[in-house]
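Retro notes
What went well: the complex prediction finally ran end to end.
Inputs used:
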Amino acid sequence: MDDLYIQVKRFVEPESVAMIGVSSRTGPGSFNGMENLIACGYRGRIYAVNPRGGEILGVKVYPTVTDIPEVVDLAVISTPRGAVPGIVRECVARGIRAVAIITQGFADADQEGKKMQAGIIEAIRGTGTRVVGPNTLGMVNSFADFNTSFVTFTNRPAANGVICQSGIFMAGALDFTAGAGIGIDIGNTADIDFADVLTYFERESRVRVVNLHMEGLKEGRRFMEAARRVARVKPVLCLKTGRSEEGARAASSHSGSLAGEDAVYGAAFRQAGVIRVNNVGEMNELNKTFMTYSSMPGKRVAIVTISGGAGIALVDALSRQGLELAEFSRETLDALAGVYPQWMEVGNPADIWPAGMSKGYLPIIRLALEKVMEDPGVDAVACITPSYLEPDRDPLDVTGALKEAARKYPDKPLAAWIFGPHRRAWAQRLEEEGTIVTYSSPERAALGLGTLYSYHHIFKDAPSPAGIDLPGFDASGIEKLLLTAGERGKEILGMQALDIVSCCGIPTVRSIAASSREEAQRAARELGFPLVMKLDSPDVSHKSEAGGVIVGLKTAGEVAEAFDLIMQSAAEKAPEARVEGVLLQECRSEGAEVIIGARRDQQFGPVMVYGLGGIHTELFRDVSFRVAPVDTGEARAMMAETRSFGILQGARGQEPADLNALAEAVARLSSLVSSFPQIAEIDINPLLAGPGGVVALDCRISLAR
Amino acid sequence: MDDLYIQVKRFVEPESVAMIGVSSRTGPGSFNGMENLIACGYRGRIYAVNPRGGEILGVKVYPTVTDIPEVVDLAVISTPRGAVPGIVRECVARGIRAVAIITQGFADADQEGKKMQAGIIEAIRGTGTRVVGPNTLGMVNSFADFNTSFVTFTNRPAANGVICQSGIFMAGALDFTAGAGIGIDIGNTADIDFADVLTYFERESRVRVVNLHMEGLKEGRRFMEAARRVARVKPVLCLKTGRSEEGARAASSHSGSLAGEDAVYGAAFRQAGVIRVNNVGEMNELNKTFMTYSSMPGKRVAIVTISGGAGIALVDALSRQGLELAEFSRETLDALAGVYPQWMEVGNPADIWPAGMSKGYLPIIRLALEKVMEDPGVDAVACITPSYLEPDRDPLDVTGALKEAARKYPDKPLAAWIFGPHRRAWAQRLEEEGTIVTYSSPERAALGLGTLYSYHHIFKDAPSPAGIDLPGFDASGIEKLLLTAGERGKEILGMQALDIVSCCGIPTVRSIAASSREEAQRAARELGFPLVMKLDSPDVSHKSEAGGVIVGLKTAGEVAEAFDLIMQSAAEKAPEARVEGVLLQECRSEGAEVIIGARRDQQFGPVMVYGLGGIHTELFRDVSFRVAPVDTGEARAMMAETRSFGILQGARGQEPADLNALAEAVARLSSLVSSFPQIAEIDINPLLAGPGGVVALDCRISLAR
């Protein structure tokens, strides 16, 4: 079979196309895809297909795809849905390797549609034919004057790629992403998915930034793997919709996506190096940022502004993005002081208005830009200037000076925030050489520079996930324990669960199971006092509520009493439960209680969860996620992401917890769930994290049915 | 003296203006304010003033303001700064009541400038002359063709007011606030301040929305009082810059503002009903929202969309704003089902594309809008449609249908999110009748509708702060205690502090002071066991760290021992401290520990602080603020604002705390700090809040020097 690059390339750079189901209606409002394809200047061979035959727009119409005298590179189907499965089979039979299904009404619709979509997948399985859609506008390639959309729109050959699940991101690309160089609306993603197109974009050098509009994923890990590879060489921006519960519901009926939990998507994006954007405006301006600026040497920003007030707004925004205000060199300060009024302090932001008003705005901005761009203490410059009138009429028109400065110093981004009613016209002028981005607000300018910095200096500098070396991870021991425990039910609790944790190499509290008073007393002598006693039953997971936990036992007598009490409580409160006895454990309390766990996500498979115990997880939902496996570095990042991290670091005068040991425990647990798919869910709760290390006090495992 | 309305009106609707310091340079780039004033069509009398005399632009130039043959309504000064104080004195002497000082270099600059600004204030004191500025573009009144700006800009008579501290919000108003009906750049606010102009806007009926750009306030309470009054009759939007530490520093050098703590500003805005916006884009679109829509009957929103994917983004955004997705009536559902393809589910969002493609987009959108606007279950409609081509060329142009629907149903907002490259042109068309707002993103559309709803239904429905009736508030007792304690130092701790709290009517823990072993034992017998003993010293505020707290005393013997121990620790760890003995208190532990306190803010005076104790305040800074006094309703809102509120409400299976008692304690404490300015700071820490009420366990008061 062809490699993935070739498979996808056929969709966007075909030498011949069959337009199947083309209508004889043409002209505005007819939504005739073939008419648009011709109009956009496509230079390949076009064949029309419609059982009625004849001729449309000067193109001969074939009754079926089989009648076309060549095997076309691409078939584009826009017939009513009932005809689609048959036509796909015809395409396969004819040896066509790329089929785009424009028609709606499949997984995005009723049961019948879902069945039909499944049938299409069945029809192409193993044939080498790939499908884009259904429910798509198809493809656009502005480098090749190619566009299958039935909606007419304007575009430009931007140096970017677009992968979307809603056609508006293709038809509206000029707004959302300053145009789409190459775009694929993957629609219902019945076959061709994000990962496929990402792999194509990885090798397509005309694409310098990739923009994703995502409603949901089917194969989360495949996406992550592809995205991480691409993100190493070009930025990948992603707008994920369906974040709210209501939105997720709407998404699943729109493209038949599985929306999944937003926090898990967030974790996966972070792990893969995908830059998540929150709205279409951010996508637009970040996309332009990456198309325009190659990098940003450091994080020190200079501000040149016509307005002190506007400068303050930008200072606020830069500080929220973690960027720094540059300190100007002596030379820069002196140069500014030479033109400023005497009473004015010189610094960053450089408020050039008073000087500009008396000495001319244009010469002063030219001087200021020259000086700060040259200043070795400055890594980027943000310039704030107004558009009160149209550029040609405005005495404050300094677009020329800005472009000049950007040309002269290509290694430092020169960003502009233009305010005022004519900013579109000014922006167009400023951006025509592709050297300056004009942002719509101080917040966006700061976001642009901040993201540029962090992509090049933080993400790209980050090591790849480490191969995880886990001495003492006893896989065969775990295998056996799971087998034995699994015979007794779906839940593994108490001693069995702790034994599995121990086989992972995670320290567990010393515990002994006892099924009688006497055994309990013997165990107590072996463990030493004080002790905790817990009910041991595979059927009772909330032991405290069933009166099944007694702490602070100090003598053999207390142990005997406690045994009787727990047995009595269990008999009363959980009469149906199988009771195996009790578990005796040392009393441990040195450190903070954390919860580490894992569960299986429909899109991403095993996902790790970390949180500080108590109210932090229960009430504040202060937890973090990662797709497993995670190495210790990623585990540290998980902890640092929670608001309560300060507590482990030693806030409130306590000794900091051993974070290395904690990170290792998370990594070991992640290895467990990655290696043993029979584990559906696991929680070590609590894991005590203290200065001397970690110790698991309790664990609960659910097996997959 | 004239009332405030008349005083401010002279600045924006003068019948005669003296332009003092006008330059003979004219034409583009000359920044000649008089030239602009003439060009904008001002119909009042203009006098130029310049010692050189002669004539400028056909206007006779008088050497001084005294030479002008009439007492003008307004003088606008733009001479070099050195001349300004003398000219202001001349204006006062001539009886001119309104003076705008354009010149920079006063409190915004060096020490010399600050002194000169103080001199100007001195010169007008008690004279009836008011000053706008210095450091301002002056005033614009587009209803009266009046504009003092030396910068040329375009504007339109929008039904709004602008008060700003940076001229860009006036000159750039067409961008920031869709124009400025009446605008005043109050610059350094040496005299005329936000509160003055707000009071003018309250009565100015052409102003329907007020927009503030604020760098800092001088008199916080005067602002709140005016803003609250105005906000009851028209929305007040505020963009506060200088939020970050760096931004605050920049602000103080820009307009000489005191930026103050951002969280306190936030609290003051909330209390005054001021709608805080986060950036200029939000200001723009919220201003338009309030200029366009009179209200919104409820919070159920219908979405009519060309794109399922875009609909999902809007659902997400609406849900974040607390709005609801409307459930369509049977009639609406049937009407849509009648035109939808059979396989498509009907609901909200109404994704009309499949129907529009087969039956024509225009008739289908017309039908959908008609049905949802009529639907009694719908309170507002948001329509999503693209601008792929210019409106006249685009077969998807539905601007007419939208305007028609908005005209026909004026009581429900019809909001539009237009995407695509031509949205400006489409927006212009949609907005020309003043019935539709075109938002730039789904987030902004949701923000617009959400804010419209909450202004009309939450803010306006909220009761005014209640008169606080506090039986048992013993003001004269407090007075006496403060006097006695004040003689002993700046800090009041222990028994004295608790006694003051008790006089406020806030329950305090039963406590007895004892200065010897024997007294301590006697006190113990009176209080009963178990007990807590605390060091009593006006010089030790962190008692625990000085070994000054022992808990769980159960016998008279333990009390004697504890007394010796505490005395010994105090002697060792705080040898300089005056030791008065110990305080014996009942052991109380029923409930959560909260901190309630107050401190004095430079701008706002006494400010209340509330937080749940422990890590919540120390580590998470999970605290809320209000400007004192607060009634119990406001105190409840303070608690509800913290993330940890759930704990008091009974999360984790505990009985909820008595929130009424807690709110009352906050109100009483706020009354204390409002009535006794000698209290600089007070903290009740902890206040135990349990199901049975509250009790103060400890308190610390700092007196103002």
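What we learned: Chain A has five domains: 1-135, 153-292, 294-459, 510-586, 592-703.
What to try next: split runs per interface for comparison.
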